[in-house]
């Protein structure tokens, strides 16, 4: 009778790996190591990132201009906001997004967005649902700070707590962070420590199983989320297998 490891069962049945079951040996035996810098698939992925991100920026330019105008007319505040995020191997870089919150929304400190968050503007709700606010991050893809597909880049302000509370959290830094990813399309926007733990389980799956076919599936799921306007808004959810 064939035997399968618990990690293998979770991957096959749930398409995720709970952090408590993970170990470095588990990662070394996975195919996702091909996405490490210097590997052929990594170079192929980087080439695709540049071509697709450049094309999307050109196509999205009118939409970005229109969204920027609406943001400016809404309250007169800045169109873009910038944040420092953690990237490949934990290196810090700056991303830009279309502003979806009120000016000075974090004057009392950084915190996760929550359901019914009063800091989010009416226009910002729509920008987040359609993920249009993420489009300026394509510049980070062209710069090489991000990839189109990979773990979501987290804010350093939150990571210190997450690394203390969640086993193997730093492993997600072994890949270039992405504009979209397996965790983003399989689990709603996270707004708590438990959400971060659940999303890491999908990131660990991607670390072990990342390949061009999985990237293509993530891209298709991302397009569906955008068309259905199911973007970055906190939802009630529990970890489960990724639905097709």
Automatic annotation (TrEMBL):
The chain crosses the membrane at residues 50-71. Residues 45-227 form the Bacterial sugar transferase domain. Keywords: Membrane, Transmembrane, Transmembrane helix. InterPro entries: Bact_transf (IPR003362). The keyword Transmembrane applies. It holds the Pfam family Bac_transf. GO terms for molecular function: phosphotransferase activity, for other substituted phosphate groups. The keyword Membrane applies. Belongs to the bacterial sugar transferase family. PANTHER family: COLANIC BIOSYNTHESIS UDP-GLUCOSE LIPID CARRIER TRANSFERASE (PTHR30576), UNDECAPRENYL-PHOSPHATE N-ACETYLGALACTOSAMINYL 1-PHOSPHATE TRANSFERASE-RELATED (PTHR30576:SF0). This is Exopolysaccharide biosynthesis polyprenyl glycosylphosphotransferase. It comes from Synechococcus lacustris str. Tous. The lineage of its organism: Bacteria, Bacillati, Cyanobacteriota, Cyanophyceae, Synechococcales.
